[in-house]
Amino acid sequence: MTETVSNGVAASTAGTATTPTGKGLTLQRVFTTAGVHPYDQVTWQRRDVVMTNWRDGSINFEQRGVEFPDFWSINATNIVTSKYFRGAVGSDTRESSLKDIIDRVVTKYTEAGKANGYFATDTDAEIFNHELTWMLLHQVFSFNSPVWFNVGTASPQQVSACFILAVDDTMDSILNWYREEGLIFKGGSGAGLNLSRIRSSKELLSSGGTASGPVSFMRGADASAGTIKSGGATRRAAKMVVLDVDHPDIVEFVETKAKEENKIRVLRDAGFDMDLGGDDIVSVQYQNANNSVRVSDEFMRAVESAGEFGLRGRKTGEVIDTVDAQELFNKITTAAWECADPGIQYDDTINDWHTCPESGRINASNPCSEYMHLDNSSCNLASMNLLKFLGDDGAFDADTFAKAVEFVFTAMDISISFADFPTDPIAETTRNYRQLGIGYANLGALLMATGHAYDSEGGRSLAAAITSLMQATAYKRSAEMAGVVGPYNGYARNADGHKRVMRKHAAANDQIRLVPGELGRDAARIGTLAGKVWEQTLALGERNGYRNAQASVLAPTGTIGLMMDCDTTGVEPDLALVKFKKLVGGGSMQIVNQTVPRALKALGYQPEQIEAIVEYIAENGHVVDAPGLRTEHYEVFDCAMGERSIAPMGHVRMMAAVQPFISGAISKTVNMPESATVEDVAEIYAQGWKLGLKALAIYRDNCKVGQPLSAAKNNKATETATTETVAAPVEPGQPVRRRLPKKRPSQTVSFTVGGAEGYLTTGSYPDDGLGEIFVKLGKQGSTLAGVMDAFSLSISVGLQYGIPLEFYVSKFQNLRFEPAGMTDDPDIRLASSVMDYLFRRMALDYLPLDKRAELGIFSAEERAAQVNGTIAANPAPAASDDDNNDDAVQAMAVSVDTGEKRAENKAAGTEAVDEAEGPAAADAAATVAGAATPTGAAGSSTEVLELVLGKSADAPLCFTCGTKMRPSGSCYLCEGCGSTSGCS
To answer: What pLDDT, on a 0 to 100 scale, did the predictor assign at position 520?
Structure first.
């Protein structure tokens, strides 16, 4: 028996729970009121969720009449309805309200908590239920996706998103590896493992033959992952493969993906479809995994001293080969420069922060590198929305944040009591060590909103202080739960090691570098509070032990970030200053991030100045030369991409600031410009080691064929001399073919669509009007080339018989088939097919603006003019006898009227646009906001950014809905449907 925790600092600052041993936790309300259910405190709406592919208009998902609070965005509503509602669509059992899924999950957690002795009384259980419900309802935090998929359903109650497997040097173990990965991928999660136990290709088998080495077995696992990925799961297979730097096959491992990238380039140049998701990309190996090299301090010191380094046999541990350390390190960094793989993991640092060293080393990580612990283990995650704790006075409410962390962490531990797992070894390890991964999202938005530059001492100190408080509070609650329901089963064996790591965390809190003045005040206050909580945590841990071997990670927070309406994910900065926003009733627009005016207010700017600066950002996408904005404040608005992008080392320094307060690691990719050198990559990897990171990955722009950076090309039309056109006489009532003269104006445009290259030659009548086309695509004599010749002939004859070009454009634009994707045309950044591109290109070259406006086709110059207000976003058609013109003019009048009303309320912020009366009003409101997006021009924040920058961003298209994804940690996230390329 241990004594009850008194209501001292713990109750008044960082928590409201006491832990009478054996009697459960005593809880107090933070957000809720006794006798009032959280649902009764909000206004509910019925909405229709109809999700379409933004490029071709096809419906991906439809459910009408769903119920959500009025303050939830359309995007969050769409994501939760399509991803997390359970039951067959259209059936009576289908969930139809946010209440349904919150009740499904929270009820299960509450019942399990009561059954396992977590609560002192039924009143405490009710408080837990209401507080958790309130926080989920108000988007204060979210569990990871598997919880929403599975908890409270008839499915296995899998709650973990992250898994680490183990493989030994036997064929049975290797084949079991394939099987276990397959089961995890089938469930939509990801796994990582270390292959260093497998003998190298330089060692002998017991039969006398030579081993094939781990890289050979990676081929089979890669093929398996690719097959399961293509089977229709909601996310792609996510996996991490790690190899120790002293493995004799390390060079082969390092160069695998770089060699495959070269193969992709050769095949692409030969005419094969090597775009991401293309028909021929499946012939390339090793594309379904992230690769990382596990380096030791010994190796990094050898690199620094230009010494030699020994590669060790797997069976004996003896050195069987010696290499130049610098040369090997250069191979690692060169490969990363060429194709972004391998990443790097710092083995000694990882194991120095290991709470369970007596149970085995940490050998690997999950696919995104944030979860690192024992082999055959798992981790369930939850993330706090940091911006929810920022008060109107600009101060971070640390006390409330800590109390919220306690409730969330309690729920996460309860889930292990009823959770199911994909394999028995994973189940056993997870139940014995109870690894949890609490984290956060919206750090970048919080820093900007408080006037902190992401790459600044002030920004890093605030981030470190908040992270330290989160970690201290989580482990404090872990110690309190240990006093109630006991420490984790492996604690007794690892008590000394665990307490040593707790002391390291607490000591790191004292080392947070604070900045003087107003910007450092919040960090100092939060750091002081964290220090007090660390004192309580260490004292409680000394008495009770700890319930959990791990407490925290920083995950990508992809889909759940959308669920919480977060502007930024995980530890990331803002992607850009303009963002994509979906509207009530359909449609979308781009707006300036709402964090921007909040930041300007925090920096002391007046409302009139803020309005002018926001308008400038809407038009230009950056703050450089914004009216009235002081140059010393530019850095506050630096983003991951754009005019003022954060330097690579800025990302590394932020990771280093928060890493000492994370049990696991950080999912984040350091973006580097295309001009970065191999030496720059080497410096990043070396500094990551020196600054105490556990893992690091880089991505150099345009280093992968699958995510091409389009160069702006604009082939000007070349006109030739003209002659009169003569039509042949025909009988009355018969179609008239208007032939082209022998010498006519023409132009040739080279194009690339999804990696497929071709040429479009068009010939026109001397008195204007398109009369013929020739399309060169595919090798001469091939079936494709023949089909395109026949197609060109049929279109040309149709044009000459008087079929209007706009008719062809309306029929062929948005036609969807491969090849599709990025183009090299600055006016048409994305095409859903070659036909889609060709007819939109011809429309731009030969149709007047009024006809193109009806089709939603604009040039880059015209889109810029719309942004600047020079021309209307939807110009009325030219006057004619067509009755439809009256309707179009009336629609324009509605748009203008609505725009004038919105202009009067512009200072109130663009969030009010959600109530716009229909699509016309939405477009007008978007124009007033200073950044109207033409129909079909953008489907995500990444595409909005491309419109602003005038160039393509390195990100794949979503496999589910075709929308351009955006970075989310070391993964990618689709804002259109919520799919991710990772495991969070």
So the answer is: 85
Q: What amino acid is encoded at 117 in this protein? A: G
Task: Return d(Cα 778, Cα 759) in angstroms, integer.
Answer: 10
Half-sphere exposure of 456 (CA within 13 A, CB side): 25
| Cβ–Cβ < 8 Å for 69, 45 | yes
d(Cα 504, Cα 881) in Å, to the nearest integer? 80
Look at strands 695-700 and 770-777 and give their pairing.
Answer: unpaired
CA distance 227 to 347: 32
> Is 958 one of the annotated active-site residues of the chain?
no
Of the candidates 366, 380, 494, 548, the residue annotated as catalytic is 366
pLDDT of residue 871: 53
pLDDT of residue 959: 67
Q: Are 192 and 241 in contact (CB under 8 A)?
A: yes
Alpha carbons 413 and 964: distance in angstroms, whole number: 36
Q: Which residue's structure tokens are 């006794």? A: 34
As a whole number of angstroms, the distance between CA 85 and CA 99 comes to: 11
Q: What residue ranges of the chain have pLDDT lower than 70?
A: 1-22, 54-56, 188, 228-237, 275-278, 583-589, 705-734, 867-937, 950-952, 959, 982-984
pLDDT score at 885: 35
Where is 900: in which H helix or E strand?
A: helix 884-904
**Packing angle of the helix pair 98-115, 398-418 (nearest 10 deg):** 70
Question: Which tokens go with 904?
Answer: 């009067």
**Residue 589, beta-bridge partner list:** 581
Whether 943 is a known active-site residue: answer: no
Tokens of 95: 């969930």
Measured between alpha carbons, how far is 186 from 166 in angstroms, rounded to an integer? 18
- CB < 8 Å & 24+ apart, contacts of 513-517: 513/457, 513/460, 513/461, 514/461, 515/456, 515/457, 515/458, 515/461
CA 563 to chain CA centroid, Å, is 13
Cα dihedral 891, 896, 900, 903 sign: positive
Find the farthest-apart pair of alpha carbons in the chain and give their distance in angstroms, rounded.
108
Say what the pLDDT of residue 921 is.
34
Closest CA to 7 of 542, 469, 480: 480
With beta carbons less than 8 A apart as the criterion, state whether 471 and 507 touch.
Answer: no
Q: How crowded is residue 98: how many other Cβ atoms within 10 Å of its Cβ? A: 24
| Residue 572 neighbours by CB distance under 10 Å | 31
Task: Please tell me the distance from the alpha carbon of residue 906 to that of residue 500, in angstroms, as a whole number.
Answer: 56
- The CA angle 422-428-433, to the nearest 5 degrees, is 115
CA nearest to 637, candidates 666, 652, 616: 616
Structure token pair of residue 103: 């009740």
510 residue type, one letter: D
Q: Residue 743's pLDDT is what?
A: 84
Of 242, 265, 263, whose CA–CA distance to 254 is shortest? Answer: 242
pLDDT of the residue at 802: 86
The CA radius of gyration of the chain, in Å to the nearest whole number, is 30
Nearest to 699 by CA among 325, 338, 221: 338
Question: Residue 980 forms beta bridges with which residues?
Answer: 973
Whether the CB-CB separation of 661 and 510 falls below 8 Å is answered with no
**705, 274 contact by CB (below 8 A):** yes
**Which of 162, 356, 368, 977 is an active site residue?**
368
For position 914, what pLDDT does the model report? 40
Please tell me the distance from the alpha carbon of residue 460 to that of residue 465, in angstroms, as a whole number: 9
pLDDT tens column, 354-400? 999 999 999 999 999 999 999 999 999 999 999 999 999 999 999 99
366 is catalytic: yes
Catalytic hit among 95, 203, 338, 370: 370
DSSP string over 396-420:
B-HHHHHHHHHHHHHHHHHHHHH-B
Q: Which residues are 66's β-sheet partners? A: 47
All domains in the chain, ordered by first residue: 9-159+365-563 (3.20.70.20), 166-359 (3.20.70.20), 746-969 (no CATH)
